[in-house]
């Protein structure tokens, strides 16, 4: 441990640093073998370094869900039931299994034909687990390119535990094994990774290094720790400077303090997530900054639910802010009123802990019960219960339907408690409006409109023409000089098949940010759609030279080669895609088409089968597969691959 090398340690908090062996600040961390991140999230050190001085905090925090948010599968952290690890999803007519082999987790998905034989079997080793397991776990794999994808099966820990479909996979038309995990997601589910500067800007390839932090650590709330530790080890800083080099959240103004929590826990709707402010990158927020300078929070109008009836798994502050307690406290009631982020309250201490939190504001009647405004006697509280049992009850979440969570909307009478936890069907939100959660957020009218319009476009897969028109009007006014809206505009115009407008939008964005990969890709695909195939191919070749792991561009280049009858180049290129992203089913379909065009029937059939193993719901690929079997004189084999109804 590096502290054993100190000549004199910090004897007590509040005593000035005496002396340690001096060294240049830039060299001291390297000398002690402490790695420091650079690039997009610079200045972060391993949390084990923090634990050297703050052992008690580190030990207690290690029991918190945040500390267990992301990690490698291991025989030491198994909580699942592998003896009963089969799940049949009737909606998609697919069977799922999770197995443990030699300490590794293996995911399997298959279907059955009319003879009961397994077909379209897909296996994938799990690389990462996301979720503490206090409520659930989901499973990720990483491709050679560095992309992360979520698998459809999840483990739900409550009520004895069970295997079920992961959130977002409940219906038949889900993304299968190709649901991408974005940097925006990982920025809240894990500590910041060590990635190149600028790689976390909107429109850059969503790639992750092989080695990632494991869990949300100290520095997500306290800020980068390298400068702090440098000052401790350097020997020439006094205690005031050492303390000033790290963020103490409890000493921040309230808005900045709760900005740390709200940055991840304020999410009014999973259907329309908060927008990053223009010019901000994913890993750019630091504790102590104003959250409103980093994110724009959006709320929605749901045609199926009133605002007060919406309850998602990540609704803690959203529901709390609807409470009379929060409103009348003028915001003094907050996360830390009840929660110490370093300490997990023991089960036998929870009742007293949360009751004390409530009674710090509410008067007691002298018998340990809350004094009621009506003058009536409050009902007795069971020894194992507390105020939250009735006034902040546990209820089932509407977006993650196999989980129950504490509802942070404090109510006088929640109604029958047991009914709140009953199983429910997944009913996606029907978004009919998007607004700012905080209308007084200090933004220009243009940026407010852009945030709302972009939220609509993302929710509607860029097919909301009215939102694109509103965004185009703002950008035409010249009020906004950032590149990000041009990405959405180009994608929206491309979805409308207005390829000239899509190209113009991409070019406007590139004038502002010529290195943004997605703008370069949008320009190339628009140019191709306008009939300038050679120009488009040259642009993609240049883009791939700069970003060789950008599989979207790699695949489009293969498709462009195929579309211009350059079959050998197309084949070589699409094989490169399958090496970078082995589950890219469209690439396997393209390979099958190339092999079929070249008269290689067996190779084409093999590629089609690989694609169908990855995505058995691809109807057009299945039809092409049947046709290729017929052409090869093997039409009698088609029935073998037909899924039983």
UniProtKB/TrEMBL annotation:
- Signal peptide positions on this chain: 1-25
Domain Doubled CXXCH motif: residue ranges: 334-365
Keywords of this protein's UniProt record, alphabetized?
Answer: Lipoprotein, Signal
Lipoprotein in keyword set: yes
Q: Known Pfam families for this protein?
A: Paired_CXXCH_1, TPR_19
Its protein name is Putative PEP-CTERM system TPR-repeat lipoprotein
